[in-house]
Write the structure tokens for this entry.
Amino acid sequence: MLSASGDSDLIAFSKPFIAGKELYYIAQAVERGGLAGDQSFTRRCHAELERLFGSPKALLTHSCTAALEMAAILAGVGPGDEVIMPSFTFVSTANAFVLRGATPVFVDIRRDTLNLDEKLVAAALTDRTRAIVAVHYAGVPCEMEALLAIASDRKLWLVEDAAQAVKSTWRGRMLGSVGHLGCASFHETKNIISGEGGALLVNDERLIERAEIIREKGTNRSQFFRGMIDKYTWVDIGSSYLPSELVAAFLAAQLEHVDAITEQRRAAVDFYQSVLAPLAQDGKIGLPATRLRDTGNGHMFYLFARDVEERTKLIAHLRLRNVHAVFHYVPLHSSPAGRRYARTGSDMTVTDDVAARLVRLPLFRGITRLQQQHVVDAVFDFFRA
């Protein structure tokens, strides 16, 4: 079976890539003799991320999971506290708060954006609610105005899980820079990559000093290196959340091409959305209700089968055509740990329905129109059959 590229290779769901000077920068880091975190390439990334997001402080972490764990500590959640979030998200969103002893409270999502339904949040709040986590699915913004108003009225922390949303915007502001704290991912499946990697965006300046301490194992080491103190010591809880300088070097090269990478992915999303439109018009599939490129970053493209059985058959058919398509999250409220550590704060009808029918198509930097056309042809062939 030939792929669109004319060989026997599978059209991958996602592929890591070299954008420019990644290997050169890694060699530079080695030659400088410092591979631990917070050296020249880390500082370069911090400056570029602060410029890109417009956040007063950006701190590289070894993963978005680490950034979320730092956010949970900074939000001060603990045993007995509750945190509002969607169930249609990656486990790290909930785990970060469960590790602090808090209870995730899952609220259903909107059918148009697949994001937290802001109209259901108020009814899920209790006197134990400490924070709201806005997950920007597929890089499409949550309804931040409503969430900001709720957080302000109830004096809650608003954390953005912007793992999928680097270069996505809401009213001209970068997602990740709107809430008190933002968490970004540079995992190899994301738009801008460093293998593993993430960043905490500190948008409330009151939290900056403590964020640096938590990231440095609970020490005031950052102040020591700035010459503010003559020795550093243990002053707070924390952990080793820094990435190595090799990760930062790779990321620094990627960030130099962030605009071009984003635009290419947006164009790929546009192609899928326009070419598959006839199937949606015939009622064979569902397509995203919002144009994913309008304020998004082209992170992913998905469609909806009519039921879970049809989805299973479609994914199997695409695999036979050398196309690696996948479904997405198993909703956290239905998982064993979700039932143990969390509770639902609303009916989860949309979440359950979406999770059973969603199919993600291949999308990566460098995917060709020929490869995308092969994917689309395979989808059409399935429904013709």
Notes: The chain has a mean pLDDT of 95. Residues 295 and 325 are 24 Å apart (CA to CA). The radius of gyration is 21 Å. DSSP finds 15 helices and twelve strands in the chain.
